[in-house]
Amino acid sequence: MTAPKKLFIKTYGCQMNVYDSERMAEALGGQGYSEVKSADEADMILLNTCHIREKAAEKVYSELGRFKKLKAEKPDLKIGVAGCVAQAEGQEIMRRQPLVDLVVGPQSYHRLPEMEEKARAGEKVLDTDFPEEDKFEKLKRRPKATRGPTAFLTVQEGCDKFCAFCVVPYTRGAEVSRPADRILTEARDLVERGVREITLLGQNVNAYHGAGANGDLTLAQLIWELDKVDGLERIRFTTSHPNDMMDDLIEAHGTCKKLMPYLHLPVQAGSDKILKRMNRSHTAESYLRLIERIRAARPDILISGDFIVGFPEETEEDFQATLDLVEEVKYGTAYSFKYSTRPGTPAAERPQVNPAEADDRLQRLQALLTRQQREIQDSMVGREVGVLFEKPGRQPGQMLGKSDYLHAVHVADCDRKAGDLARVRIVSSRTNSLAGELID
Length: 440
Ligand code: SAH
Ligand code: SF4
Ligand code: F3S
Hints:
This protein is of the alpha/beta class. About 35% of the residues lie in helices and about 20% in strands. It is built from 14 helices and 21 strands. The strands form 6 sheets. Strands 2-1-3-4-5-6 form a 6-stranded parallel sheet, with helices on both faces. A 5-stranded mixed barrel has the order 17-18-19-21-20. Helix 4 (about 85-95) links the parallel strand 4 and strand 5 (about 100-105). Helix 10 packs parallel to helix 12. The chain is globular and about 60 Å long. The protein binds S-adenosyl-L-homocysteine, iron/sulfur cluster and FE3-S4 cluster. S-adenosyl-L-homocysteine (SAH) binds near residues 53, 266, 268 and 340.
């Protein structure tokens, strides 16, 4: 038997890339690869990339440049680029960086084993097709040892919304939902390996409409099917679009005990003029009413969001509308970005906001969001929450986990192990975490 080859994968971008990296590692496991934690020891390096903002995409080229020396020392080393930069700039990557042997787009991961063989034989290989076949079905999970208590599971991929700033519809393609039975089989398999919490993933996860035994299922119906899986304790999903927040999903937040009280619901901006130009097809008002309905179903739900400032033609007044919306919603966490021009998207051609102004707006928005986040975190002190423990902390006897609301919680002198769920009373709030004690 030949010695196992070593694979190093570096993952950028969203949770879907984290999930995909795992599946790629499993696919290459069949080719005799085992994963290692550093590029230096690898026989193959894969960068799983993100194209969402310019900075994210540029990182790939600087990272690749760093492998030059490694490749000179080890001519057999194979270097591959996967993910959304691969999809968007496949040919250009090969041109700009000759040390790249393999480029694979997100829809072609099931073809990796054959691509690896060709690369080993000295060929340059590129596959950025959107093939018809179901990559997840071909990327069957291999028998694998136990794993941590939380896992991602992709249920829907791609997007048909075409927000004017966004590359996702181009890099991930049209919206596709996986059939429910495959998702349930995968979920049961994860639970058998020790998983207690599953986060369902999709670029537009609440548009899920996968085939079931009696017609298509909504995301809420899929969640209710998962609710029946013994041993699965918690269900989350991300990312949702406000326009696909169906009644049955809102209701599930009130009635499904396994569905956690946390919802990531990006709004992007608070000005109707900007929302329209972003092609978001919701208004600030319709978003606020939606949040009201969600809170009526589940009053303690923690709302998370995404924001873009400095979108083309955003005025100070438009930006104020974003601040007003944030004041009204009160976000438990949020991600905010300065608009980044993405070639090929409709907004790229429009008059751009002065970068210094956009920076200033971003700082003001982030100051407000950070204050809200801290207030909501502090308000947890004295409350009882569920915590799923994930790993030991730095102090002896300490355990770390996540609350129902996704806050990091640490408990001292804790006799529980990873994978245990417990009731915890929150006793104090620090910068990025809460401290709690077990309630017997
Ligand atoms: N599917 C999700 C999010 C996709 S990308 C949704 O519909 O909201 C994650 C976040 O990146 C977006 O919500 C947006 O806030 C941000 N983003 C996307 N394109 C961007 C761009 N060109 N410049 C800056 N931020 C961007
Ligand atoms: Fe991008 Fe808009 Fe689709 Fe989200 S909904 S992935 S922001 S195009
Ligand atoms: Fe980035 Fe692609 Fe995800 S662009 S955010 S890795 S879908």
